[in-house]
Amino acid sequence: MKKILVLLTLIMTPVLLCASGAQGSPLDTGEREVLSITDSSGNTVSLDGLPQRITFSGKASNIVADALYMFPEAAERIVGVGQTSQFNGPFVEVLDPRYGEKHFFQHSAGPEQLAVSQPDLVILKNYLKSSLGDPLGQIDVPVLYLNLESPEYYERDLRVLGQVFGNPDRAEELITYYRNSVNYVTDRTEKLSERPDVLFVYHSTKDGVSAFSTPPREWIQTKLVEMAGGNPIWADSHPGGGWNKVNMEQIAAWNPDQVYVVAYKENVFEVLEDIYSSPQWKEMKAGRNGKINAFPVDFYSWDQPDSRWILGLKWLGKMINPDQFHDLDIEDMTRSFYRDLYNFSDEKFDREIASRLGWQN
Question: Which CATH number does 193-323 carry?
């Protein structure tokens, strides 16, 4: 009889322990380590461990997305996707093998709509704090903000994402890549004795009316021109604010040596054809010398505070000062960027990127 009782005790003990643990016994208190993250804006969130359901949204969602997906954990953890794209469609669809399983949000989506994805963290561009971030906080949804508007902020924001995904080593790899790439350019341009006058313009069309605009001094586009060895001829007249429309009289007065054109919602190469057919542009130094060029575009133009800005910097360095960058192979540079940052095979690169850049038919 004693042997039977001992045997029953041995059998029942693990069951009792498991049942007790499920109820929150000292064997499993249910408590998780609190993760505290402070973003580059100074905002701090406290999370119960690494976030497993991440949503991003807003008008600049593509910029946020392309930073998130440089981390291998992103596809599994992201559940809500802000829908925004430019001329060539959404890059996220190519990056995320689970794209069809996500919740999708227009850039105007409010807090209640985002809450449908049941996020344990929402990531937004910092300009959305008052309009979207604060209302999300009022319904107890944690929010982190990314800046991503300069090389310095890019480093800070990548470290924040390293904490979000529990992968600080990947964050440091990315920071090293961007830092070394910037140094590769600026080491060759910072001591130039002469810098050509460069104009950067954004072309847009509204209600059939064509317009050109320049970026503020502190925006990434201006910084790219400076780091690449050009003199941003418009910068002193536009110290702050958003895009500033400029007329042809002002452009002619600047009479730049080189011009670089972007058009986020249009085919920029069609815009370029119109420019070269214009007598006004032909009379300028840049027009006479064939120095009006369109920024490269795959899914997105390479001039923005998207992950591609580093491609834009190197490309611009070679365009503005070709003698300083005679050893730079643009295609090799681009192929390695997509391989190292997004794990693209050569086949995927040719299909999704080279084809959009016009490097293959």
Answer: 3.40.50.1980
